[in-house]
Amino acid sequence: MSHPGELIIEPRDGGPADSCVIILHGLGADGHDFEPLVPALQLPAERAVRFILPHAPRLPVTINGGMVMPAWYDILEMSLDRRVDEAQLLASAARVQGLIDDQIAAGIDSRRIILAGFSQGGAVAYQAALTYPKPLGGLLALSTYFATADSIVPADANRDLVIEVHHGTQDPVVPEALGRAGAERLEAMGYAVGYRSYPMPHSLCPQQVADIGPWLGQRLAAA
């Protein structure tokens, strides 16, 4: 898979970052998809947060007739549990973990790194965060599903990871039942999970954005 890089948004005051939020976009999009979210979060100016918005590689996607598009992995069929190319998902998760490694090497404490993902990006975020060998600051799963629930081997370092799951009650792409099932599976594995639903389709909504900002602020203040 080719790796076309990432969009990086540095702290507003131009100073060095002391924390990092990595956001993974959904199928067919790119890192710019979440660029407008960064100012909308209205994080306090003193939060020196670097946002990293990676671009997925371009892959043929089976459910879209083999069309080549930005994708973290191939989706083989639109079954209720989403049959996916797990090797590609794991490769994308490893790439994201490499981005986390880079931030730690640049001086950011792992507990001040938060991973978020929307839809397909959320499935990658689940895998990357739960298997990362150092404690992270949080995981935000947006309108997504836990694709590797049956195969994942979680790292002990993130057994206490703070996880927030959001889903739209009117989602025609990833039914809310899949979002709830992922949260329940995590709880069964011993994780504490916050779950919020919103009256929206497969997207973000203003109330959700208003909730994400304080959640990120709390996570970064706690680290």
Automatic annotation (TrEMBL):
InterPro entries linked: AB_hydrolase_fold (IPR029058), LYPA1-2/EST-like (IPR050565), PLipase/COase/thioEstase (IPR003140)
Sample GO molecular function, one term: hydrolase activity
Short name of one Pfam family: Abhydrolase_2
Keywords: Hydrolase
Domain of life: Bacteria
Gene3D superfamilies, sorted: alpha/beta hydrolase (3.40.50.1820)
Residue span(s) of domain Phospholipase/carboxylesterase/thioesterase: 15-213
Family designation: Belongs to the AB hydrolase superfamily. AB hydrolase 2 family.
Protein's name in the database: Alpha/beta hydrolase
